[in-house]
Every structure is written in C-alpha cells, then in structure tokens.
Design a protein that fits this description.
Length: 297
C-alpha cells in the first residue's frame, strides 16, 4: 500500500496538477520540448497540449524558443514553476525528476549553479528536514554552527563546507542609522529561513515586536526576489546578501558574515562536495579554506 498526495494550482477555475509543473521543470532541465517529452515518457503532442492548457488557464506564454535553439521557460513560466515548487516543498512534496535534488537556503551563486536542475529554496531548517527525510539529496544551510545543527537534528547526515558571505540591510536609500528601520516597510523571508532569524534578531535589537513591524507578513522566497521588490518600491528594505543587493542597485549596510554550508545524504556527499568547490561566488562571498570538505558528526 502506498499513499500519494497531489498539489494542484487553481487558476481561473482551471486545476493544474503536478503533471503540468513536471512538464515545465522537464523543459527547464532539458531546454528542449523533445527531450522533455522523452524524460517524462510521454508523446511530444501530449506535452504540447499540457503546456498549451496551462498557458490558456494562466493567460500568459510559459515557454518560448531559445536564441540558441530549443525551448526555454518565459519569466512567467519560471515564476509559476517556482511558486508551485515552493508550495509543494512546504507540504513535503517533490517532483522528483532529477537524480540530484536540492532543498535548502537560497544564495544567488547557488541558484545560478543549480540552473537546469531541480531545486527547492525553502530555507535552511525546512531544507535540512527534507534532506533528512529523504526528499532531497543535499541543501544549503546557514544556522550558525551548521555542524552542531546537523548533529542535533539529523546525525545520519553529513556536512560539506561551503563559503562565507556578507549579510546586511538592503534599502533604496542610504541608511545612516539602523534605528531608521523601525518605521520602514520590510520584505521578510519565509519561516524556517536562516535570514528570517537574522531579521527577527535585528528587530529585537531595534526594540520592535515582529507583529508590529510594517511588512513583516510580506514574504519573498529568495534573496533576489526580496531585493527586486525593494528596488521596485514595494518595500523600503530587506535583509539579504551583498550580492543580491548590488545586483538590484540597492544601498547595503553590512551586519555580519555567516557560514553557508551544505548538508547531504552520505551517498550524495561526493557530488555535493564537487558542487561546493566549483561555485562561482558573487560580491561579498568568499570560499572557505576547506570548501568541499565533507564532515560527518
């Protein structure tokens, strides 16, 4: 006996199930409708019909021809897939198309390296639990003492050393004094995200109750999304990495530096180690001297 839970997105009265988002993920991973159909084990016309039905429901193009040939997701398609995968991960569901699934914290360099793969940016704690539960193979964490966190919550897993990165306040205008933030609107991060803990700590230092902080319930899934929303004027500030702040032209006030490591299932640690050692880091990040080293509690 086995139990299957399916998450559906309801758009304009239409229900779009996992098969639609598996199709989008397969296209994103293979950059080809033909190869995506082969990966899914379905006829090419069936895949086209799935995508066409989703596009009619959403009222937007989800795929387009790539300049290099083949097919890629549009920005609308990429956003729809991200939203579905984030909601699925919160419910303990993965699409399961990749032999190496990532679930954990977000970093711009990590996202770029995972492009074309299956990644769930769900925050450090949720990612650790997904890897521990066998839903993913590895994931990024920044929980303070990362090795201690693995030993406490998932001693059957190992840790791959990664990099150090600067974290701070990103705002549209210069911040002369952090007390200015008390009455400014925030873009927050999801519960369980390491950056959410940073935000809570900052608010405590400012003497602001989270319930009273403007925008506390306004959540962005990734550092780039949070920074982009501040840059667009939807909020006044967020807490993010220097790389995300600079990418979106925001003023950055450094608060601290943190270790970003990777938790892994033992059988996936070799690939996770190569992944960590090969990252092309952005501004404000630097590799640890022991990057790629596997440590088991």
């Amino acid at each position: 006996m086995r139990f299957v839970a399916e998450l559906k997105a309801v758009v304009g009265g239409a229900e779009l199930g996992a098969e639609v988002f598996k199709a989008l993920l397969a296209i994103d991973m293979t950059a080809s409708m033909k190869r995506a159909a082969q990966a899914l084990g379905m006829p090419y016309t069936t895949l086209w019909n799935l995508v066409a039905r989703a596009e009619r429901a959403m009222g937007a193009r989800l795929v387009e021809a790539s300049r290099r040939g083949g097919t890629r997701l549009t920005e609308a398609g990429r956003r729809a897939l991200r939203l579905y995968m984030a909601e699925a991960a919160r419910r303990g569901i993965v699409l399961g198309l990749s032999p190496l699934i990532y679930a954990g914290s977000h970093d711009p360099a990590v996202e770029e390296a995972l492009r074309g793969g299956e990644a769930y940016f769900v925050g450090s704690l949720q990612g650790l639990l997904m890897v521990a539960g066998g839903l993913a193979h590895f994931g990024g964490v920044h929980l303070g003492d990362n090795l201690q966190a693995v030993a406490a919550y998932a001693p059957h897993l190992c840790l791959v050393r990664g990099f150090r990165r600067e974290v701070g306040v990103a705002a549209r205008r210069p911040i002369a004094d952090l007390t200015q933030l008390a009455n400014m609107r925030l873009v927050n991060r999801p519960p369980g995200a390491g950056t959410r803990a940073h935000i809570d700590r900052l608010l405590r230092q400012l003497g602001v109750s989270p319930r009273e902080a403007p925008g506390y319930g306004d959540v962005a899934q990734t550092h780039d999304e949070a920074a982009a929303r501040v840059a667009a004027g939807e909020a006044d500030y967020t807490v993010t990495t220097r790389a995300a702040a600079e990418r979106h032209g925001l003023h950055f006030v450094r608060l601290w530096e943190e270790d970003f490591d990777f938790v892994c299932r033992p059988e996936a640690c070799g690939e996770a180690s190569r992944f960590a050692a090969g990252l092309r880091l952005g501004p404000g990040s630097r590799p640890r001297g022991d990057a790629g080293q596997v440590v088991c509690p």
